[in-house]
Write a structure and sequence with these properties.
This protein is mainly α. It has a domain at 23-65. Helices cover 72% and strands 0% of the residues. It has helices at residues 9-18, 24-52, 57-65. The chain is elongated, with a radius of gyration of 20 Å.
């Protein structure tokens, strides 16, 4: 007998989306929205690390010119 785990909050929300009949355009909009959301999160995390490590434009130049 396999034990079933409860659904996460994300899984529950995605299941609600399955009940919608989205047009191809709406589906593209939803994918774009999700992509932008995760890009924003990644950018914020990169900014946090950048500040924590005290990186500068010089740091980026060094990385770009490293052999």
């Amino acid at each position: 007998m396999e034990l079933q785990q409860p659904l996460s909050n994300v899984q529950e929300e995605i299941l609600k989306l399955y009940s919608l009949d989205l047009s191809p355009e709406e589906l593209t909009e939803l994918k774009t929205l999700l992509g932008k959301y995760y890009a924003m999160k990644a950018s914020k995390e990169a900014d946090r690390i950048w500040k924590k490590e005290q990186f500068s434009d010089d740091t980026m130049d060094q990385w770009l010119n490293a052999e």
